[in-house]
Amino acid sequence: MRIPFPLHLSLLPFAALLLFCHAPLVAQGDTKSADEAAATTGPKKQQIPFLRPQGSYADLPEMGFSPMSLLGGGGSLPKPFFRFVEAVDGLAKVDGAQVVFDLSGGASFNGPQLRELERALARVREAGKQITCYLENADSGTFELAAQCDRVLMADMGALDLRSPAMSVMHMKDALDLLGIQVEVTRVGAFKGAVEPYMLPTMSDHLRAHYEAMLRSINDDVVRRIASGRRLSAATVRELQAQRLFTAKEALGKGLVDQLVPWSGAERAIALLRGDEQFELTDAGPKKKRQSRDLMAILGSLLRQNKEEEIEDPQLVVMHLSGQIVDGDKPVPGNMVSGPAVTKLDELAANDLVKGVVVRINSPGGSATASEAIRTALQRLAAKKPVVFSMGELAASGGYWITTIGQPILAEVSTITGSIGVFGMRFQPGALMRRLGVHTEIVRLDDGPLMDATDRPWSDTARERMQGFVDEVYARFLQNVAASRHKTTDEVDAIAGGRVWSGQQAVDNGLVDAIGGLDDAIARVRAAASLGDDVEVLHVPEPKNFADSLFASMFEAQVQAGGDAAVLRAVLAECARYGEVLGVVRDALVQDGMPRVYAMLPAGLRVR
């Protein structure tokens, strides 16, 4: 069997370690007894809890194995966001009145996560704790958190980038024309944001106006957060956003920070603030499991596949449905695959120890058929126990479709949702093939097989048939929304047609019940199921570990499709920002002759 190159490379370090390291790793250092050490330390210093978030955070991160990251020097994987929220809440319970939030680690949070953290920091202040924040360089998201603290210290050589939210949409029409690739589209409604990047070289005026209105809605919450935290007017914050870049001295002069300190870290900054060094910062971050220092035990834990925690006591479950929605029977990292999702939802419905479920959604949509399969499974779940939906950064198109079961829906102001629309699309590289001298002969009994011919456009009959599929699926979408939101299909159609909305706009339009985060959704389920605070919350599914990801993404791909397919998947995974485009391309490469109808957010649409 031929081993794919990235896998071979990744196993070399393990082989070398096994050859030269047979004994447990033993820490070397001072061997003084505890009494001797205590005798020389002097007066006990005050312990000040601190948190220092670093890197990116995901609601339920997956352990992924990326050959491209390995070859390129690697990069840190997302960390569990809600474990970090628990650590912030833990600051409210520590001894003493002072806690420190060190935001110099370059942490990255999306809009809904910032709102969750705003509420958590408010709970810390309500517990009587004073929160001191340390900044070096800060972007807008970092500063939104800093503004929630009682005192903000900034390194004197630092800078603040107070950028207002914006979106970047890549249009590919000219490039496709240059390559000789035609995109054939069937859609419903006048709004065509999902297909404009393939059909127009630049954004249409009406779509730009719609996106600007959504950005204003999202930015209103950003401005509120900064203005209330720093005691500034909303108009002042908008003026500062327009100026965008500030030196540390300018940020101090504008009232954005309270004091400048030398660029020497949070601990020295706190010492300067206090005027003494009779303290030490103690890490209050999420606790990590103690790991064996024996090399063989470390390797064994890496290569041991995870088993999901069994539910043995009454519990409230947070079911995470994340990624592009696709049809299939096997899990695919980064995707919401209909088969495994339905199976898990049915298991929760059948388990009497599961007393209620919060369904946390982060999805740009995807396959209409997969969305319907998951929606009906959620209906079965809701028929047996309380269900509340909590929308994260994205819950649009197919991600909204799955919520249409008549249960409460919560979203954050900066959630992107709606996009109630469907389309059919395929790439037709006939001109490119002719340039390359490639010609395809299709031997057939009738014109039916020509629908999936890649070298020629659809016939009028084929296009009419495909339009019929799209019309029927869109009508089903409208009916689902109308029934679940107590509207008529005409009322839904007026706010549908593919239009995307912020969470606040969705509340105003009646597509979402209220603004709120996961904590609010959990509180609603507790109340509906008459559960006390002693009933624990379990997040599922269990994130994959190194072994799960390695075996699934490498060995299975090797067996089923060969090494080239595994490498291709790895390359595609690196282009996650445009996952919606890649999803359509993947489906376009599947030559099964079935028409594809998508309920999907416009390609690459993210607010930054």
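the 2nd protein, sequnce then structure:
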Amino acid sequence: MPSTFLGLNTGLSGLSYYQATLNTTAHNISNADVKGYSRQTVGSKASVPIRVRNSSGMMGTGVEMTGIDQQRNVYYDTKYRKAEAKYSEYEAKKEQITQLQTYLNEMQSETGYTKLLARLDSAMQDLASSPSDATYRTQFIQAVGNFTDLVKETATNYQNSQRDINNEVAIHVDTINSIASQIYTLNQQIMNIETRWGNANDLRDQREVLVDQLSELINVEVTEVPIMYGLGEDATKSGASRYEVRIGNTVLVDEMECKQLKVAARNEKINQNDIDGLYDVYWQGLNGSLGEKFNFNSENVTGRIKGLMDVRDGNNYNPFAGNISSMNTAAPASVVVDLPTPLSVDKLNLPDKGIITLNCKEYYYDGFEGTYDADHNLVSFTFQNLTMDDENGERITADLDPSLDLGKEATMGQKIDCMGIPYYMTELNEFVRTFSNYMNDLFTSGADANGEAGLDMFTTPDVEGKDFVLTTRDANGDIELASSLKASDSSYYRLTALNWALNQDIVKDQDKLVVSYKSDIEQGNKEAKGVLEKVIAGMKDRAMFSQGTPTQFLQAVTTSQAVDISKYDAFSKNMDEVSTVINKQRQSISSVDTNEEAASLVMYQNGYNLSSKVISILNQVYDKLINQTGV
């Protein structure tokens, strides 16, 4: 039998429910423009009915509020974050490679390499018209110097870009750590609230905004699983959940811990012209120590940091690699690595001291020696004085095991599928070495204005400030070739785009510029120009580079950059469109539509008024029953 006052309680339940809906609608309207806010709705169900009579069934008792819920879709959140991570990666690559392209100044006609090479050609033609003219000689030397300065400035700017990217990586790692700490704090607050049977909706919104920000830097994987009380069939939901954020395959933050990343500067280089102190990223271990190295080259890692690291370290998927052919296990330890294909010294990118990975283990070396074949190409390297880190981080003599390592792969760095700064630095090094070798062979075949043997036109100063002698000739005038290559030798390996320069003796004394052969000088023919004619022809020699002439080589460099810029621009626009579409879909669920909320406000107001009317009418009924009915 229902209570006499059941109707009053039923009306009161409606009044409470509509009061909650009005408050929640007001909250939605107030936060309509707040970034990351998710629309909230009041859940409800019919309250438990009561039995009237066996034959009459059940009587309703009103409405029961089940909770205030967020309107979010986990599927769209996941898809959006993946798209944002890819977009940020491509955008970072496009930005950085666009900057690299500007350094050759090809779009600025007065300072680009095409203009400078044209001026050099004009200076050579003027000199050819009067080889003994001091003004034309000086003009030619200045034109050559302007061109070498452009290449050096380009290489220096590449290094500056690598340094800037390196610093940006460190900043982003700090940002990731800060976001992870904030998510951890919110996890604790949300768990404390929701274990007491409440939904921490606004705190959840703050957490989702942080995860969105994190996904721009590096892709994340989020899982949320209810925390249960008890085990098996007796388990019940606690009201809270385990919220876990992963980057790569490792948990970054959950309700129990918040891991941190840490950057550490390399003590050794991977590429010859890398800047000092490039950062590697590690998981932070106990007491701030370095834990496991974070692998940004993994296929499942994307985001802005990934894009920056690819440009900073990109080698076009072509690092130094070979097979271990022999080992010297006695101190000082060494290893011989055979190359799969012969390598020209012009393309050599090894640092004189660095890290080499032998059969997946890292070792340090402090020198190398290369072996030439009959065509004077490098076919093997001996890496000397190998050391390794022991358990305490101390350097000890390398512990090599020929029975396990012989025939296995030896590499330096990772295969990074991006034409980044190391790749373009190697290209510039190849240009200056090949060009210098070609031209030095011509200039040293002749004699200067005083009849003395010609000097290398292109070289670089050693540590004492004296120019390296890169071309030596025997008594018959034939070029002498070294039987092996050592990092400390006076060889074209020592010449890079960063230190490329004219021979200082020629800069100081234009009479040392070679334009003629010795026989012409001895005969007093000051207008002879046999060497210069070969130099002029050499500038148009399509056999100098595999890409063709010097101009065509540099055009190939800028063209590959333009192709990459176009590619990454198309990729970033595509992913931006994808993320925009997905975001619109998730906003259609979670964002606040003020028109809809206004309509809901009127509807809930009517419901509230009707519930009030029910109570008012029942009040009159109870007044009649209690105060006006009697005997």
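Residues 154 and 339 are 30 Å apart (CA to CA). The chain has a mean pLDDT of 92.
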